[in-house]
């Protein structure tokens, strides 16, 4: 997992104009309330897609690695890549934003507690509401849903709600 994150960051850093790093702590919405931690890198492409810009939407790419606490065995390690649409406020200084996206995630185990995930490869749907706290510092509330989209016999999807700190430079 560490190698995956290192390779992803190295590959992305060669073409990045703006950078963002974030750290998130979260909790599963399941009965056991397992804790999660996530470290991520957000790539902001320098090119603007005119059609999206007309609607004040900007494309970003989120690359992350996470640990999910497993109360019934070893903790799970995950990695994800999520293309996202970022909608910043049009008010002065863009003090809030909404981000949403769907991407692919890899989970190193197919069981999390009593949940049968069905496969190591899953989809991650992410919705994030954030505010600018000070200059390049942001805080956000994030909702993520993981599922294999019924591509496997077992599909006990899961939800994670996280509090996220992000620094952009």
From TrEMBL:
Q: Name one GO molecular function term.
A: hydrolase activity
| Entries under Gene3D superfamilies matching the protein | 2.40.160.20
Is the keyword Hydrolase assigned to this protein?
yes
Write the record's keywords in alphabetical order, separated by commas: Hydrolase, Signal
- Which domain of life does this protein belong to? Bacteria
Q: Does the keyword Hydrolase apply?
A: yes
Signal peptide range in chain numbering: 1-18
What name has this protein been given in UniProt? Acyloxyacyl hydrolase
Report the source organism. Thalassotalea euphylliae
Q: Identify the taxonomic lineage of the organism of origin.
A: Bacteria, Pseudomonadati, Pseudomonadota, Gammaproteobacteria, Alteromonadales
């Amino acid at each position: 997992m560490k190698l995956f994150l290192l390779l992803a960051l190295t590959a992305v850093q060669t073409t990045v104009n703006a950078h963002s790093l974030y750290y998130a702590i979260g909790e599963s919405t399941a009965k056991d309330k397992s804790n999660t931690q996530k470290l991520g890198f957000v790539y902001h492409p320098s090119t603007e897609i005119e059609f999206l810009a007309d609607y004040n939407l900007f494309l970003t790419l989120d690359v992350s690695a996470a640990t999910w606490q497993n109360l019934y065995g070893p903790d799970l390690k995950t990695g994800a890549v999520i293309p996202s649409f970022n909608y910043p406020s049009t008010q002065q200084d863009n003090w809030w934003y909404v981000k949403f996206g769907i991407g692919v995630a890899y989970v190193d185990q197919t069981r999390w507690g009593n949940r049968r995930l069905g496969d190591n490869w899953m989809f991650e749907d992410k919705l994030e509401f954030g505010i600018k706290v000070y200059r390049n510092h942001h805080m956000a509330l994030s909702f993520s849903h993981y599922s294999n989209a019924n591509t496997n016999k077992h599909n006990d999807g899961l939800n994670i709600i996280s509090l996220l700190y992000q620094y952009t430079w």
